[in-house]
Every structure is written in C-alpha cells, then in structure tokens.
C-alpha cells in the first residue's frame, strides 16, 4: 500500500497559556504574622516545528489542522512555582517551508533536525511574593498568566535533492531511478505512471552518493496547469543539476528536438532561475534501437541542440555509470 503524497497544508497552532500567579500568606503555628508566599505561574508550552528525516509527506495534517500545546500550571503557596506546560513538537518533512496568512515566509526547514518555535507559550503570572517590598509587606497583588501565541500557517513541502529528472511522460525517468537506486516507483507502458514525486539515492561508491528526484512527466502547457507537472515543478527548485531524458523510440530527429524544447520551455516558464541550472541531456532507451542508429541520432541531436548529449539504457544499465560520474562532476566542480 502506497502513502498518498501531500505537499501543502494549513494548520492552526496554539501555544499554551501561562499559569496564574498565586496570592497566599504563610499560615504556620507560632508565626502570627506570616508573610506572602504565593508562587509564580509556569510558562505555557511552545509549539515547535522540527524537520524529521523520517517524515516524507504532509498527509498527517490533512485531517488534523489544530495543534495545541499544554497550559502552564498556576503557582501555589509556600512559594511554589507552577509547572511549565509541555512543549508541543510537530514533526514535518525536511524541506518544509512555513508561510503566514499573508504569504510571507516565516522559516524554511531545509536542514535535518532543524527546529523553529512557531508559537511561543505565554509567560506565567507573578505571585504576591514578588510584590513584597520593605514598605509593602503584605501584598495581595498577583497577575494572571499571559495568553500563548496563536497562528494560522501554511506548510509547503519542496523536496531536497541534488538532481532533478526531466522528461515527457514515458521518457523512462522512473526506470532510470529504479535502476540507480533502491527506489521503487511505478513503471508501466502508459503516460503519467509517476503520480507523485519520488526520491532515490544513487551510490557511486562508499563516500559518494547522489540524491535524485523524479516528478510526474511534463507536457506542453504544464507551467500553465496542463497535465500533472505544474503541481510538482516546485520540487525541482531545490535541485542543483537537471538530467533531461529523451525517448528516441519511433521519433524523428525533428520530433526529439521539439520534445527537448517543450520541456525546457515549460521549466523556463515556471522559473527562469531553474532554467539556468546545469543540465545533462540524455537519450534513453538505447536498447530499443540498433547501436549505429543511436549514435547517429546522438551526433545529430548534439549538433542541433548545440550541447553535449549522452546515451543510456535504463533497462540494461548501459551508459548509466558515465552519466552518474558526469552528474557528480557537476555537483562537485572542485573535486
């Protein structure tokens, strides 16, 4: 059974109210004039968001939009302070961006185990002991606890990966991801088999690994909402390098050039910054054509696009190691 991918959610968070201060006087035998001994109230609990590497989706928030921290306990006699309210820690996926109701970013939880207090608990009230002075020895003043902060915030998840996979539906992105990593995306011979973003980790050796993200295939008009790609283009924004896969099967060279232009055009329409990321163009499914035909297509396509073009087969694995090494060089230019 697969987990439904949810990458946006609204939640309401309520920090705990501070406990009230206490008004009390000592009542002890043989102490006829006991002074004030009312303790302070405890602080209310904070609401804390933290980036949990084990959480992959915002699904849990769809049916639970309200989150409340514990109230602080009131102070008591004998100068006893009230207990602080327990903080409420809310796990969210790494890469979660938090916005207020006006759309202003509050925090970007892009690092694993990163924490942020999204709503502060109210301070506890002062007991009457705190009001005693040399001229005011029997104070009856005390203060109530402060209310905790309340906020309505929008959570938006953007996956964090080194490499983003581009391509039309059925370009072989899912097959490539399953070949280079332990990810198991859905693979079939019809469009849009990938219905949600998928992450995979390709290990080149003991000390080198690349995180790849596959999003639903783009089609012409994706940046304007056509097809499935628009909802997931944002997940490519955190990637540093793009890998653009082309399917040469039953395609003329003019059609391949058009396919290439469609994808790059949609990426550019979504984000000019994203369009400027380093990109490797790869002809996939080389196992479906004679080797001499594949090489002829590669050379001609390379000339037409005026950029290097590589060849792989996601099914047999041919050429994949070379592509991974090239990706590593782009990700680590200083090595």
Which shape, going by the Cα principal axes? rod-shaped
Mean pLDDT: 84
Which second-level CATH architecture of the largest domain applies?
A: 3-Layer(aba) Sandwich
What is the helix tally?
5
Helix/strand/pairing class, anyone? alpha/beta
Beta-strand share of residues: 15-25%
Our Rg estimate from Cα atoms comes to 29 Å
CATH class assignment of the largest domain: Alpha Beta
Largest sheet: 6 strands, mixed
Regions with pLDDT < 50 over 5+ consecutive residues? 185-195, 219-229
Classify the fold: give the CATH topology of the largest domain.
Rossmann fold
Give the SSE string: EEEEEEEEEHEEEHHEHEH
The CATH superfamily of the largest domain is identified as: P-loop containing nucleotide triphosphate hydrolases
Largest beta sheet: what is the strand line-up? 10-11-9-12-13-14
Fold blueprint:
Elements: E1 8-14, E2 47-52, E3 66-68, E4 88-93, E5 96-99, E6 105-109, E7 115-119, E8 150-157, E9 163-166, H1 173-180, E10 198-205, E11 208-214, E12 241-246, H2 253-270, H3 272-275, E13 279-283, H4 291-305, E14 309-311, H5 320-331
Descriptive key words:
335 residues; alpha/beta; Spo0b-associated Gtp-binding Protein, Chain: A; Rossmann fold; five-stranded mixed sheet; 14 strands; 23% strand
Overview of this protein structure:
- The protein contains five helices and 14 strands.
- The protein has 335 residues and is α/β, with parallel strands linked by helices.
- It has two domains: 1-157, Spo0b-associated Gtp-binding Protein, Chain: A, CATH 2.70.210; 163-331, Rossmann fold (3-Layer(aba) Sandwich), CATH 3.40.50.300.
- It has a six-stranded mixed sheet, sandwiched between helices.
- β13, α4 and β14 (309-311) form a beta-alpha-beta unit.
- The chain starts with 7 loop residues before the first strand and ends with a helix.
